[in-house]
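User: Hi! Is it possible to get a structure for several chains at once, not just one? Here's what I have:
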Amino acid sequence: MLNDTQEIRTDYAPPQKRSPLYLVTGVILGLILGLVYAWVINPVVYENTAPDSLGDVQKDFYRSTIAQVYAVTGDLQRASLRLALLTDPDPVFALGSQAQRALAEGQDAEARALALLASALQSSTLFPEPETELPPPQPTATDTPEGVPTHTLPVPTTAP
Amino acid sequence: MTRRTWRFVFFGLAILAGFAAGLGYGWGINPVRYSSTSPDSLRVDYQADLVLMIAELYQAEGDLALALARLDFLGDAPPVETVNRAIDYGETHGYALADLARMRNLAADIHLALGGIN
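Assistant: Yes, the chains can be modeled jointly so their relative placement is included. Here is the combined structure:
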């Protein structure tokens, strides 16, 4: 039995005016893959970091350790050099606020050490005052913790 | 090669070009930045100074458990190893003898207390 079907070849080819959009699609696809690889699968790993890149909790630990060592040794210069590594905008404020938090958590010894260092730094010239002037503190209704040395200036009184 | 094959080749090249651009941007121009690095990624001199602080506190307090808890901050490495690394650094970088003695004392006490554990 003969097979009568034959393939008919024609020379006619329809004009293929396809836009190069597929190239843009490829670039975008590659870009996405590249970013996923660089950010998620194999991101840049930081080593040999400095203390100022630590997280807040770790910075608190670092600051607290510095303060406790200062409370033991009394070496203010060393403490201030160590504290400078954390690059706090206002180290005295950072110490003070951490002292408040420690006190609220019932860690009296740590709070005392932090406040002691804050007080010592405030009365020394090792740390310059912050450039921006802070507004005067408004009185709040919070209780002043006992046992934490505060830096209270004597109020001048007028003689009667 | 047919036109169709060339299209596949160009498409592959475009993906590669995009991938390279993505890597360049993700690694070079705008890499992932960690603002909260862990303490074990600290440079060795900072780690050594932290160990020294812990040794200073241990000398004053005499509380080994507290010292070990503080050393735990520096990562999962065995505490003796961490202290010994700091001592090595201190010895090669001219730490004061008193500071080295404090760290050696801490290392000895940890070794004595933990023995074969670490």
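Chain A touches chain B through 42 residues (CB under 8 Å). The longest helix of chain A spans residues 21-41.

User: Great, thank you!
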